[in-house]
């Protein structure tokens, strides 16, 4: 009797093991092909889109592979499809393994398609496909997305998922590109009160490239030469109601990123004008923001008043005029210069958002909400409309936490 | 050392209650609340808890007259044989549909996010088989397993809360009154079903070491759970803002979004496993209580043997709706509209009849004797 019981139990456990495979959802890693980047373009046929898939080869560069594999690190295919969900199956006509979006890192949309009125309805499929995580990014490319992936040939970081991960993370830390996750895209579009910024990128060299201030470039404008990959991530594309309407350069993107409390900016290195001498040598500094903005609004009158106080910490990194900061006067001059520079720049960008973009490119509307008791009142106020006429003032609360090493003027020979 | 073998202590009871009711924060309840009163949704659990407090208090007071008797015996005693039978049957039917509706919600979640290719029936069968197996083991096992895992469940929930807080914006809860105070006050009584399980827990009073365990445990779990559901809703509002209305299962969307640093980006599976274990316990306990009710109504002593067949019936009811959308409309809405208010009315009715019959006076006299 006991024996039969034991045998029965063992058999039962064996049956239970079968469940562990996951029934119909059994998946083999070996059997899958991971899409890292997905490009979306306008198709030549109406009602369709051109899908480009950037597939990574997991064997390349991993420790287990030993690096001995001679296979290419990636594969790129482009074809026309109705949407990018059913395209997974179509892709199998070319790709030997099962195509999956589980590790999808970045959507690249061509500028041409992003400006199309039909773009949001196509792009909203991201909420339907369960494999797509909402922390993947959306980027807008100057050229066609299919061309972008082909021309993007990183020299060092040949594994595509690592390339995009590092490129995006450091871009966001520097503030030169916005933190444009799908999550933010969906939220901003559904909120309908402000604008969304997507990172701007290109793999194309521009013909005439001029030299500008350290962050005033758009992607493709930076004149970098040498043995390198031509892809650049800088600046942002502005989306209104899910459709692209305009572009912001690196500097403006940075300003918005500093204003936006929800973005994780870390190390922003900037130049600012030299108040001590007339030559063009500028100071450089590291800017960090440890506290949130203080936003005060007066929304009662016909013209809303908004006062934004931005707390910033500066570390002076260079001293081109060899100024002695032990003197209180010099420190005051420097601080005043920074405040003037920052406030001027911020107000310029916000003015541009009011006149040119007709909306605020970061969720400032959140700060206005607490002035209302109910949703009805808030809707009646109509933030999107009121913002355009608002009187905005920016106050920079600058703290200089480090003046750098105190240096003596080098004594000239013979003096 | 007065240990009662085979009886539940307060800690087991509180953990069962937290797992069963607190789990509502992790399914579609926050979304449902959000669709009703938008960003004031976090107030509703607290308000409903405040309203449901009255019937629950009266129920506990009435039950305390009959030490160690379960809910159905008390109903029969107070309301008589025939009326009592009908009311017991109503409670049983409501909680049967409740179990089918909530298991179906869980199946939809699992199928939507984790097992997209597996047929509904198979997932359903596995869930029900495991719950039935657990229920057959008896309430003592359920109690000790709950106590074992409640810690992990709560810790994982807090980790999720903490991680999602970094993505949330606290300003999302403004305008503070949402669609207006009147609308909130109107919705409060309609969401009593959030706490309907506490009424059903009165069925397992004979398994407690004393009646004190029930009253004390209920209050501890009640306060905690209402805060937990409210806090979860609050955090989901902060995180999703207006998109919350369109997100069916916010908890699962959150665990797919958050990451533990750059090197562990996709962590949902850790939370999923803990969540599914708590789901098993929830339905195991639910199934056991339902079998207990059935056994009581139809005077079946060895009701444990009923569990597999009851479970099969619940499965069959649960798979009737074709899609999650149908399930929401056909099942969830009627149950949520019905269960809470009905249970509240029954509690108040019991207390009133007991009062009119003078049971409270009798008890007092007995005590003074």
What is the mean pLDDT of chain B?
Answer: 87
The CATH homologous superfamily of chain B corresponds to: Amino acid/polyamine transporter I
CATH fold-level name of chain B: Amino acid/polyamine transporter I
Q: Which percent range fits the helix content of chain A?
A: 25-40%
In short:
Chain A has helices spanning 2-20, 87-91, 111-114, 119-123, 145-151, 160-174, 182-191, 250-259, 328-357, 365-369, 375-381, 383-389, and strands at residues 32-42, 49-56, 74-81, 98-100, 106-110, 137-141, 196-202, 232-240, 243-248, 268-272, 283-288, 294-298, 305-316, 391-402. Chain A is of the alpha/beta class and 415 residues long. Chain A has two domains: 29-259, no CATH class; 267-415, GMP Synthetase, Chain A, domain 3 (2-Layer Sandwich).
Explain what this protein looks like in three dimensions:
The complex is a heterodimer of chains A (415) and B (369). Chain A has 415 residues and is an alpha/beta fold. Helix content of chain A is 30%, strand content 25%. The longest helix of chain A is centred in the C-terminal third of the chain and has 30 residues. The mean pLDDT of chain A is 84. The mean pLDDT of chain B is 87. Chain B has 15 helices and no strands. Chain B is an all-alpha fold. Chain B starts with 9 loop residues before the first helix and ends with a helix. In chain B, α5 packs antiparallel against α14. The interface between A and B is medium-sized, with 31 and 36 residues.
């Amino acid at each position: 009797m006991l024996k039969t019981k034991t045998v029965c139990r063992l058999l039962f456990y064996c049956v239970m093991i079968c469940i562990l495979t996951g029934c119909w959802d059994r998946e083999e890693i070996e059997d899958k092909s991971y899409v890292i980047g997905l490009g979306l373009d306008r198709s030549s046929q109406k009602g369709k889109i051109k899908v480009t898939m950037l597939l990574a080869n997991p064997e390349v560069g991993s420790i287990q592979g030993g690096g001995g594999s001679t296979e290419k690190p990636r594969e790129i295919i482009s074809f026309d499809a109705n949407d990018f969900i059913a395209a997974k199956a179509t892709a199998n006509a070319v790709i030997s393994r099962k195509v999956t979006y589980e590790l999808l890192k970045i959507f690249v949309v061509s500028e041409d398609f992003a400006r199309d009125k039909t773009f949001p309805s196509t792009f909203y499929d991201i909420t339907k496909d369960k494999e797509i995580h909402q922390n993947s990014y959306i980027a807008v490319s100057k050229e066609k997305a299919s061309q972008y992936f082909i021309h993007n040939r990183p020299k060092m970081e040949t594994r595509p998922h690592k390339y995009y991960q590092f490129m995006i993370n450091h871009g966001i830390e520097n503030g030169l590109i916005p933190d444009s996750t799908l999550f933010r895209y969906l939220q901003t579009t559904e909120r309908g009160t402000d604008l969304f910024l997507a990172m701007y990128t290109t793999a194309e060299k521009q013909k005439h490239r001029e030299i500008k201030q350290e962050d005033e470039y758009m992607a493709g404008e930076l004149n970098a030469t040498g043995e390198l990959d031509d892809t650049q991530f800088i600046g942002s594309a502005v989306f209104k109601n899910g459709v692209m309407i305009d572009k912001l350069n690196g500097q403006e993107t940075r300003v918005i990123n500093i204003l936006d409390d929800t973005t994780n900016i870390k190390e922003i290195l900037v130049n600012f004008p030299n108040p001590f001498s007339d030559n063009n040598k500028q100071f450089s500094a590291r800017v960090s923001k440890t506290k949130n903005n203080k936003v005060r609004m007066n929304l009662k009158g016909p013209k809303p008043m908004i006062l934004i106080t931005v707390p910033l910490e500066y570390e002076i990194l260079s001293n081109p005029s060899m100024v002695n900061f032990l003197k209180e006067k010099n420190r005051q001059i420097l601080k005043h210069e920074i405040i003037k520079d920052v406030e001027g720049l911020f107000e310029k960008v916000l003015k541009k958002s009011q006149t040119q973009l007709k909306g605020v490119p970061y969720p400032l509307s959140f700060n206005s909400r607490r002035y209302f008791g109910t949703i009805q009142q808030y809707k009646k106020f109509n933030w999107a409309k009121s913002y355009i006429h608002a009187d905005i003032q920016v106050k920079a609360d600058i703290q200089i936490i480090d003046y750098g090493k105190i240096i003596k003027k080098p004594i000239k020979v013979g003096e | 050392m007065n240990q009662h073998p085979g009886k539940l202590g307060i800690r087991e009871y509180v953990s069962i209650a937290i797992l069963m009711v607190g789990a509502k924060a992790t399914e579609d309840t926050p979304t449902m609340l959000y669709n009703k009163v938008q960003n004031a949704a976090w107030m509703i659990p607290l308000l409903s808890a405040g309203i449901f407090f009255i019937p629950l208090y009266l129920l506990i007071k009435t039950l305390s007259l009959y030490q160690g008797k379960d809910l159905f015996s008390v109903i029969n005693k107070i309301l008589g044989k025939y009326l009592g039978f009908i009311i017991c049957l109503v409670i049983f039917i409501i909680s049967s549909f409740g179990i089918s509706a909530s298991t179906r919600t869980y199946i939809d979640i699992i199928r939507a996010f984790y097992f997209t290719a597996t047929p509904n029936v198979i997932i359903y069968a596995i869930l029900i088989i495991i719950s039935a197996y657990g229920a057959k083991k008896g309430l003592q096992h359920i109690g000790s397993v709950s106590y074992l895992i409640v810690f992990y469940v709560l810790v994982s929930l807090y980790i999720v809360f903490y991680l999602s807080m970094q993505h949330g914006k606290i300003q999302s809860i403004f305008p503070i009154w949402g669609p207006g105070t009147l609308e909130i006050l109107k919705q409060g009584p309609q969401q009593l079903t959030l706490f309907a399980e506490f009424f059903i827990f009165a069925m397992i009073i004979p398994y407690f070491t004393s009646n004190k365990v029930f009253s004390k445990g209920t209050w501890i779990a009640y306060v905690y759970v209402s805060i937990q559901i409210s806090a979860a809703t609050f955090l989901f509002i902060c995180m999703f803002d207006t998109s919350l209305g369109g997100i069916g299962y916010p908890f699962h969307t959150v665990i797919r979004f958050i990451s533990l640093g750059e090197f562990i980006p996709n962590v949902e599976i850790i939370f999923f496993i803990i969540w599914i274990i708590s789901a098993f316990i929830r339905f195991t306990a639910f199934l056991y209580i339902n079998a207990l009710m059935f056994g009581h109504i139809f005077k079946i002593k060895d009701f444990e043997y009923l569990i597999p067949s009851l479970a099969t019936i619940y499965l069959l009811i649960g798979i009737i709706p074709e899609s999650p959308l149908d399930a929401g409309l056909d099942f969830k809405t009627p149950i949520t509209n019905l269960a809470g208010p009905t249970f509240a009315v029954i509690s108040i009715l019991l207390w009133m009849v007991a009062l009119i019959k003078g049971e409270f006076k009798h008890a007092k006299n007995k005590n003074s004797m």
